[in-house]
Write a structure and sequence with these properties.
It is a single chain. Strands 5-1-2-3-4-6 form a six-stranded mixed β-sheet. The longest helix is centred in the N-terminal third of the chain and has 17 residues. The protein is of the alpha+beta class and 193 residues long. 27% of the residues lie in helices and 25% in strands.
Length: 193
């Protein structure tokens, strides 16, 4: 059973992905993840997801160990003003002092292109180095916990536009995380500019 700390150490030996060319990184991650907890198909799916997270956060100085996608989307008024949706994504990483941190970011999502838009907040993580990796992968999005009592989330991307987040339904039967895991995505730096 691989722990979060063991995975972090192994991840430091994986070559970082080139922008939108993540195959070598995905293959290296898949080899790390094939254990008793993750069969081949599951390992490949998560490897693609983690390689995308490494690609997304490449210019932030953050090395994400995992990335959660929030189930809720931001709606905009008036509708159809922008061609993409904004949601929250949370990266698990270590900060400069060595503490485990959940870093919540706004994520622009259009078709199969994604882009980090704005850092939202940081939260202490409940995970430690001995946490089994499968527990990390199975956890609910930390941003959902952060805003569980709100029916809207205070987005900050464009304060001149009236915005809200649709949180009426709660997590669907087929969560956003699984939908996101099953799609290949390109990182598009120009997406939200």
């Amino acid at each position: 059973m691989i722990s979060l700390q063991e995975f972090e150490h192994a991840l430091s030996n994986v070559p970082p992905p080139a922008r939108n060319d993540r195959l070598d990184c995905e293959n290296a991650l898949s080899a790390l993840l094939i254990t008793s907890e993750f069969d081949n198909a599951c390992a490949v799916e998560h490897a693609r997801h983690i390689a995308l997270a490494l690609d997304l956060f490449m210019e932030t100085g953050i090395t994400p160990l995992y990335l959660w996608i929030d189930d809720r989307d931001q709606g905009r008024l008036p509708s159809s003003t922008l061609p993409y949706d904004i949601t929250l994504a949370t990266a698990l990483h270590r900060d400069s002092s060595g503490l485990w941190i959940n870093s919540v970011w706004e994520l622009a999502h259009r078709d199969k292109r994604v882009n980090l838009v704005l850092h939202h907040t940081d939260m202490d993580s409940s995970f430690c180095g001995h946490t089994p990796l499968f527990e990390v992968f199975a956890a609910a999005p930390p941003s959902h916990t952060l805003y569980q009592d709100l029916r809207w989330v205070p987005y900050r991307y464009r304060p001149d536009i009236d915005t809200f987040m649709d949180a009426d339904c709660g997590p669907p039967d087929y969560p956003a995380q699984q939908r996101f895991l099953r799609k290949p995505h390109s990182v598009a730096p120009e997406l939200a500019r």
